[in-house]
């Protein structure tokens, strides 16, 4: 006779006490210490932009929450310079256990928050908190804003605090990377190849992996490091899809290395956030100036930038509004091969509270190209000789190309001209971004392609970029929700199983929305029978339920998984 006991249900471990999360928190080396000025500056930005009297950045282990940043730390910390509280009393626990954003316009109406003693102690009537993650995606803390009155948190408020939480994550990642660099340098006698690899990895995180593919325009970019090539560049660019076109920015941060990397990440994030809500490029640069001025906090530093906001005009033309803050003028290369200067001027960002931004408008026809570049191109010269390539040299380079040169050819021509003029040794970083208007019929009118490489946050990165495009297409709420679900599941399959670089393509036709994910993994997804007891495996069931059709097609070394939805 045998006795068989009934199975005992084992409760899932709390995210708060997850060993992996706690190891990530301890690895930051931010516990048991007081506020840090780098984080204080970021919380001041949150306070200024959101208009809230209290902002706190905390890191949290399983027992206590430690304050790491707040606009006025002296008003909170004790004699030892440290402030901490039991985690059970704080909203941090709610954020960590949910793993997502907590938005409470009225704390009294949220049962998760209203009875927490810290809410009462700080007089929080409204509360907005977002998770702060390490590079592996573990939640190590929380960035929150509090107000003493009930208020509505707008989409701009929420996007702002998320963007600045990204900047906090970048600071943490940078410290971890620098700490790892120092450890490896000691162990390997400052192995030059290892330092170069780490610098390149950090640099890649500050530039888009690939220029986005947007309907009606072709975007190409080329960036080259100056000096020894092992320090992080101060040049950056970004292209932000907007509801009626695209905003393209190029900038140059004073200096190099870790300090420039932090400023680059912040400037790029601030530009992306402002461009998402503001159509006027001069207003965007003024917003970036406000952010940088608070960030520099009296330190001598600055950023030059040029921003172009492009939107469709009549008869296959595009209208470009140009704004410049201390940046070289843009070049417009016409379809017939001629090249002319536009824009330029203004004063650098971050120096004062009232920026001077120059602006100009220009119309681009099919085949025309807008060329933005940094002064590393025009100031290229041979060491010991001061004859520079110059703006006129850049213009002649573009005018010498065949009229039909594409965007990538134009970008390469300028960087090659700079390298040739300085004998292959750039003293400063050099960057070029080209936006070329496509001929009618050469592109899919509503088609966006983005390319991604596998890393811890790639799922979140892909969802955010896709959501910006789909929101700009003004889809019905139900279609948008279904599309985001399909994208999340198809990308999760690549991340969990293929683990390769992948391409996400969004195509909107008259009656259908098509989503394609191309990767280099072998085999295809299989629709499994629904098992309600299984912890995973429902992703394709959800895709099958919301899509009109879906499938998997072999493509070269890999495959394409696609789904189509009604574009209501």
TrEMBL record:
<feature type="domain" description="PPM-type phosphatase">
    <location>
        <begin position="218"/>
        <end position="437"/>
    </location>
</feature>
<dbReference type="InterPro" id="IPR001932">
    <property type="entry name" value="PPM-type_phosphatase-like_dom"/>
</dbReference>
<dbReference type="InterPro" id="IPR036890">
    <property type="entry name" value="HATPase_C_sf"/>
</dbReference>
<dbReference type="Pfam" id="PF07228">
    <property type="entry name" value="SpoIIE"/>
</dbReference>
<dbReference type="InterPro" id="IPR003594">
    <property type="entry name" value="HATPase_dom"/>
</dbReference>
<dbReference type="InterPro" id="IPR052016">
    <property type="entry name" value="Bact_Sigma-Reg"/>
</dbReference>
<dbReference type="Pfam" id="PF13581">
    <property type="entry name" value="HATPase_c_2"/>
</dbReference>
<dbReference type="InterPro" id="IPR029016">
    <property type="entry name" value="GAF-like_dom_sf"/>
</dbReference>
<protein>
    <submittedName>
        <fullName>SpoIIE family protein phosphatase</fullName>
    </submittedName>
</protein>
<dbReference type="InterPro" id="IPR036457">
    <property type="entry name" value="PPM-type-like_dom_sf"/>
</dbReference>
<dbReference type="InterPro" id="IPR003018">
    <property type="entry name" value="GAF"/>
</dbReference>
<dbReference type="Pfam" id="PF01590">
    <property type="entry name" value="GAF"/>
</dbReference>
<keyword id="KW-0378">Hydrolase</keyword>
């Amino acid at each position: 006779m045998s006795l068989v006991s009934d199975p005992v249900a084992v409760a899932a471990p709390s995210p708060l006490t997850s060993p992996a999360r706690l190891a990530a928190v301890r690895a930051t080396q931010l516990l048991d210490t007081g506020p840090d000025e780098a984080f204080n500056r970021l919380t001041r930005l949150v306070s200024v932009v959101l208009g809230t009297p209290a902002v706190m950045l905390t890191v949290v282990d399983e027992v206590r929450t430690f304050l790491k940043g707040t606009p006025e730390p002296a008003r909170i910390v004790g004699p030892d310079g440290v402030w901490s509280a039991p985690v059970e009393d704080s909203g941090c626990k709610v954020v960590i256990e949910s793993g997502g954003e907590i938005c409470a316009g009225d704390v009294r109406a949220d049962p998760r928050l209203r009875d927490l003693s810290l809410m009462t102690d700080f007089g929080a009537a409204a509360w907005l908190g977002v998770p702060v993650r390490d590079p592996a995606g573990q939640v190590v803390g929380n960035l929150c804003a509090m107000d003493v009155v009930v208020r509505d948190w707008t989409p701009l408020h929420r996007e702002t605090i998320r963007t600045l939480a990204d900047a906090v994550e970048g600071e943490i990642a940078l410290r971890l990377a620098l700490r790892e660099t120092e450890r490896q340098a000691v162990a390997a006698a400052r192995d030059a190849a290892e330092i170069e690899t780490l610098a390149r990895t950090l640099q890649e995180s500050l530039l888009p992996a690939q220029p986005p593919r947007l309907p009606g325009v072709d975007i190409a970019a080329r960036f080259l490091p100056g000096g020894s090539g092992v320090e992080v560049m101060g040049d950056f660019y970004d292209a932000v899809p907007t509801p009626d076109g695209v905003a393209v920015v190029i900038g140059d941060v004073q200096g190099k290395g870790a300090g420039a990397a932090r400023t680059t990440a912040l400037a790029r994030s601030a530009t992306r956030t402002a461009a998402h809500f503001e159509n006027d490029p001069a207003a965007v640069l003024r917003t970036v100036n406000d952010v940088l001025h608070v960030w520099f906090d009296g330190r001598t530093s600055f950023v030059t930038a040029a921003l172009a906001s492009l939107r469709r005009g009549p008869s296959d033309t595009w209208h470009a509004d140009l704004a410049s803050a201390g940046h070289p003028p843009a070049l417009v290369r016409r379809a017939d091969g001629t090249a002319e200067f536009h824009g330029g001027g203004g004063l650098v960002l971050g120096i004062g509270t009232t920026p001077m931004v120059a602006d100009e408008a220009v119309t681009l026809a099919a085949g025309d190209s807008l060329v933005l570049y940094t002064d590393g191109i025009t100031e290229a010269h041979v060491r010991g000789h001061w004859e520079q390539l110059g703006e006129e040299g850049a213009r002649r380079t573009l005018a010498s190309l065949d009229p039909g040169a594409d965007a990538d050819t134009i970008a390469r021509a300028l960087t090659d001209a700079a390298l040739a003029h300085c004998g292959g040794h750039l003293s400063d970083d050099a960057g070029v971004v080209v936006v070329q208007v496509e001929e009618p019929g050469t592109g899919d009118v509503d088609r966006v392609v983005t390319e991604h490489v596998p890393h811890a946050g790639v799922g979140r990165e892909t969802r955010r970029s896709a959501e910006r495009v789909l929101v700009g297409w003004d889809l019905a709420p139900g279609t948008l929700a279904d599309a985001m679900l399909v994208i999340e599941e198809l990308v999760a399959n690549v991340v969990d199983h293929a683990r390769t670089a992948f391409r996400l393509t969004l195509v909107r036709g008259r009656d259908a929305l098509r989503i394609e994910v191309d990767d280099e993994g072998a085999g295809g997804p299989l629709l499994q029978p629904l098992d309600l007891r299984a912890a995973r495996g429902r992703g394709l069931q959800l895709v099958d339920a919301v899509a009109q059709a879906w499938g998997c097609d072999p493509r070269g070394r890999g495959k394409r998984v696609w789904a189509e939805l009604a574009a209501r």
